[in-house]
Design goal:
The protein is built from 15 helices and 21 strands. The protein has helices at residues 39-54, 56-59, 63-79, 81-92, 96-119, 153-166, 181-192, 207-216, 229-242, 264-276, 296-308, 328-343, 379-382, 398-406, 421-430, and strands at 6-8, 11-13, 19-23, 30-35, 132-140, 143-147, 170-174, 200-202, 220-226, 245-249, 255-258, 288-292, 347-350, 369-372, 389-395, 410-411, 413-417, 435-438, 453-454, 457-458, 471-479. Strand 11 (255-258), helix 10 (264-276) and strand 12 (288-292) form a beta-alpha-beta unit. The radius of gyration is 24 Å and the shape is globular. The termini are far apart. The structure holds nicotinamide-adenine-dinucleotide. Nicotinamide-adenine-dinucleotide binds next to helix 8 and helix 9.
Length: 489
């Protein structure tokens, strides 16, 4: 099989690092082989990026002209939606319908930031002196290190590349080891859309080698990271030493709350989707479920019945809900958590095993699992499993519920199911999380800011203001009636 090239400073070339593979998690076959980037590739990409963003033809380009590149990329993604969906599913095993949704969201993100280019500008602060005017302008930061995880690469890559390019920067993307394909394909589309060479590089490879060298490089002036909290913390230390900014989208252990007046049908469908879509490999997975004691039995019966209907299978088939987990090692980690839950006194209501279907034995499949009988103190309620495991806790006191829902190092998202919107708003206000869904779950909008409280992150992605996260503000004082300052006379 021919090895894939990587994209370094506008050139497609063999990586100079170790051989690596992209494997289809459904049966572990090798989809593509490539050599990862090495430290020389990092150096070449950063030098090319620094030259490219400083080039007068790019720096002086009005932002609405940069927008045309993003619009072309958006159109190219839409033209090639089936190919990109297939690639995303091969790379990380995400079921077809979800992968397709992500591809469409990447096209929408590129289009959104093209539109932001048209409307975003500087400010004219109020004048404090009649003969002085001040302008507040925004300039690019320079070379951006964008580091992304494997669970939704096309969406997380585009959430970083589009605003960074719209703001006039150069981007070096380091995708996760397991999922290099979609990121390299995006580079191809940006090149085809006319992005000048050097403004985007894609450097697959290990985080501890390629990612580390990239963020430490003196010419890298911002780190935009999505991934685990521990990695995010390490990167924040590096950024602090360099005195550069970071934006961090990190882990979660999101509470979902079903109040006693909830519409059981609505809530059961929402909870099922909130935890088991993407096999629970989502930062915002609703993995801690609090159910009012008054409706616990009927609600759990409905949720269990719906979960039993989920089709486990090859994610390339359109009707499949549950595909494989990303790697055998990750499935092992999920199994360890389930064992730990049992050891801590939990009982398995549903799932808890590798599916027995002979056709699934080559892949990293795991049954959607529901665990009861634990308190919020259990390890599986405090730690992010990142798999199809839901832990359910009954409650009857709202004040205790709020304390428990907030008793987590994480603060990414929460769901509330109730017909009483006044109560829902009060609860939403009391939860220490960055996003609250009321009578819905896991819906996104590129125009609505997203990010975490506490150890779930720093900064926000999406929304008009997120462009400014990739810019630095400059104030210019303009004397309208210049007079000598006779201070020294
Ligand atoms: P991870 O932190 O292990 O890796 C993420 C990326 O960081 C990868 O590209 C990896 O190679 C790189 N990396 C690892 N160590 C590095 C280092 N020392 N220096 C530089 N780069 C390094 O996370 P993962 O396992 O790929 O992804 C799962 C995690 O991502 C979960 O915790 C999940 O909640 C989180 N996530 C968060 C969001 C969000 O928006 N908040 C979205 C998706 C995933």
């Amino acid at each position: 099989m021919k090895k894939l090239d990587i994209f370094v400073g506008g050139k497609w070339q063999q990586g100079r690092g170790n051989e690596m593979h992209s494997r289809f998690p459904g049966d572990q076959h090798i989809v593509a082989t490539l050599n990862s980037a090495n430290l020389e590739d990092v150096e070449d990409a950063v030098l090319a990026a620094d030259k490219a963003w400083r080039a007068p033809s790019w720096r002086s380009q009005p932002s609405h002209q940069r927008a045309t590149i993003l619009l072309k990329v958006s159109a190219l993604i839409e033209e090639r939606i089936d190919e990109l969906t297939h690639l995303q599913t091969l790379d990380n095993g995400k079921p077809w319908a979800e992968a397709r949704g992500l591809v469409m969201s990447a096209a929408a993100t590129a289009r959104y930031f093209a539109a932001v280019c048209e409307v975003s500008g500087g400010e004219l602060p109020p004048r404090r002196q009649s003969d002085m005017m001040t302008l507040s302008t925004y300039q690019p930061v320079g070379v951006i290190a964008a580091i992304t995880p494997w669970n939704s690469p096309i969406a997380s890559d585009m959430q970083k590349i589009a605003p960074a390019i719209a703001a006039g920067n150069a981007v070096i993307l380091k995708p996760a080891e397991a999922t290099p394909l979609i990121s390299l394909k995006l580079a191809e589309l940006f090149e085809q859309a006319g992005l000048p060479a050097g403004l985007l590089s894609v450097l697959p490879g290990k985080g501890s080698i390629v990612g580390d060298a990239l963020v430490r490089h003196p010419l890298v002036r911002k780190i935009s990271f999505t991934g685990g909290t521990n990695t995010g913390r390490q990167l924040a230390h590096i950024a602090a030493d360099k005195l550069i900014t970071t934006s961090l989208e990190l882990g979660g252990k999101s509470p979902t709350i079903v109040l006693e007046d909830a519409d059981i049908e609505l809530a059961a469908h929402g909870v099922c989707y909130g935890i088991f879509s993407s096999m629970g490999q989502a930062c915002i997975a609703g993995s801690r479920l609090f159910v009012a004691k008054a409706i616990y039995k009927p609600f759990m019966e409905r949720l269990t019945a719906l979960t039993q209907q989920l089709i486990i299978g090859d994610p390339r088939q359109e009707r499949v809900h549950i595909g494989p987990l990303i790697t055998p090692a990750h499935r092992e980690s999920v199994i360890r958590y389930v064992t730990q839950a049992i050891n801590e006194g939990g009982t398995i209501r549903l799932g808890g095993e590798i599916p027995s279907d002979p056709s699934l034995q080559e892949g990293n499949y795991y049954q959607p699992t529901i665990i009861e009988g634990l308190t919020n103190q259990a390890s599986v309620c405090q730690e992010e499993i990142f798999g199809p495991v839901l832990v359910v806790i009954p409650f009857d006191d709202e004040a205790e519920l709020i304390d428990e829902a907030n008793d987590s190092i994480y603060g990414l998202a929460a769901g509330i199911w109730t017909k009483d919107y006044t109560r829902a708003f009060k609860l939403a206000d009391a939860l220490d999380v960055g996003t609250v869904w009321i009578n819905t779950y896991k819906v996104f909008s590129i125009s609505t800011p997203f990010g975490g409280f506490k150890e779930s992150g720093l900064g926000r992605e999406k929304g008009i203001e997120s462009l400014k996260a990739y810019m630095q503000q400059k104030s210019i004082f303009l004397a309208l009636n210049p007079q000598p300052n006779r201070w020294c006379e």
